[in-house]
Amino acid sequence: MCRIVRSVTLADHQSPKEKKLVFLTARVHPGESPASFICQGVIDFLVSQHPVAQILRDHVIFKIVPMLNPDGVYLGNYRCSLMGFDLNRHWQDPSPWAHPTLHAVKQLIVQMNQDPRVSLEFYIDVHAHSTMLNGFMYGNVFEDEERVQRQAVFPRLLCQNAPDFSFSNTSFNKDVVKAGTGRRFLGGLLDDSSYCYTLEVSFYSYMTAGSTAPVPYTEETYTKLGRNVARTFLDYYKLNNHIKDNRPTHIQSEDIISPTGDRNNKGNGVSRDAAADKEKDKSQGVRH
Ligand SMILES: [Zn+2]
After folding, report:
1. Catalytic annotation, residues
2. Distance 127 CA to ligand 1 centre (A)
């Protein structure tokens, strides 16, 4: 569990005409299938009738590219594209011929960044990690200490909302080997008020504050992390006061209805309270 004090004023300098924009990509590494479940969780939540989702849609534009490397996924590759490239090392100068998806997405991001009607504030690229536990983030390193502090706010808030997300595993680096990644390249391209992260999630397990042994991730718990990522923008943008009647903002899976009208009752709910989740899971026979 994280305790945080929000002392930094966020995005308050913006013109009210600018709409905030969050850009999310996943599956640049085709073998990292947990990234798709996270992305699914984000999308299912954002298109649902949940009051938090409705408020987020009113205030924030989400652009989501769920699969940056579809050819690699189709072929069953672990890391590279059809032509053998690790696309997450080619953001600096992607070729329209050799890295077409990357080239197109980069062009779109550059275009959004220049659009005076929107303020591109977040770029999050979702991956899975083969050795670490929990969900965590990588961020960039800046000279400006205030910017460093501002960059840490979103992962701290996510740590409060998602029991499987670890702020202590979150780190900030400028390794030369990561220079061609989306997070590093766009971190240099976008302006000072934007934040670029890699969101990593373990292929295996997570530890929560109360757990004595690692808990294996399931499709449901990956999806749940995605929902928590989405709802954290409500806290980040201080939109809680838009919730009518002081309704609780935690998310239960029965609140999420797919566009086809089916209630998603496969997964367990999303709650800020890990203990309450555990009790609920027990009663629903969910394996943890
Ligand atoms: Zn990866």
Report:
1. 200
2. 4
Within a domain: 47: yes
Pull the structure tokens for residue 41.
């969780």
Neighbours of 124 (CB within 10 A): 22
Give the span between the Cα atoms of 110 and 122, in whole angstroms: 13
Number of domains within the chain: 1
- 201 Cα: distance to centroid of ligand 1 (angstroms): 10
Q: Is residue 70 part of a domain?
A: yes
Q: How many helices (H) and strands (E) does the chain have?
A: 8, 8
Give the strands of the sheet with 118-129, arranged side by side: 60-65, 19-26, 118-129, 195-202, 135-139, 171-172
In CATH, what number is assigned to the domain containing residue 106?
A: 3.40.630.10
pLDDT (tens digit per residue) in 57-113: 999 999 999 999 999 999 999 999 999 999 999 999 999 999 999 999 999 999 999
Residue 87 Cα, ligand 1 centroid: separation in angstroms?
10
